[in-house]
Amino acid sequence: MDRFSDHDQVIAYPEKLGGGFSVKAPDSQPLVGEILDNDGDTVLYRDDQPVTIAQVKAAIQNDQ
């Protein structure tokens, strides 16, 4: 996680879309990720509740 800025945002993909995540700079607009659908076509997915790398780090620290 240290290779990302604390301000970068994590876009999480729902399980029905294959799960996983990507990381985007906060100034990249629109804040969307590209994933493949079941047919192998590229689709855009917008995460309505992205979190920052700093929030992820804090959650990990609080869990330990």
Can you give a write-up of this model?
This protein has one helix at 53-63; strands at residues 9-12, 21-24, 32-36, 42-46, 51-52. With 64 residues, it is of the alpha+beta class. It has one domain. The strands form 2 sheets. A 3-stranded antiparallel beta sheet has the order 2-1-5. The protein is globular. It starts with 8 loop residues before the first strand and ends with a helix. The model has no long low-confidence stretch (mean pLDDT 79).
Distance between the termini: 16 Å
Question: What is the overall number of helices?
Answer: 1
Strand content: 25-35%
Largest sheet entry = 3 strands, antiparallel
Number of strands: 5
Contiguous uncertain segments of 5+ residues: none
Please, what is the average pLDDT?
79
Number of self-contained structural domains: 1
Kindly report the spatial arrangement of strands forming the biggest sheet. Answer: 2-1-5
How helical, in percent, are the residues?
10-25%
Output the structural class: alpha+beta
Radius of gyration: 13 Å
Shape: globular
**In sequence order, what are the helices and strands, one letter per element?**
EEEEEH
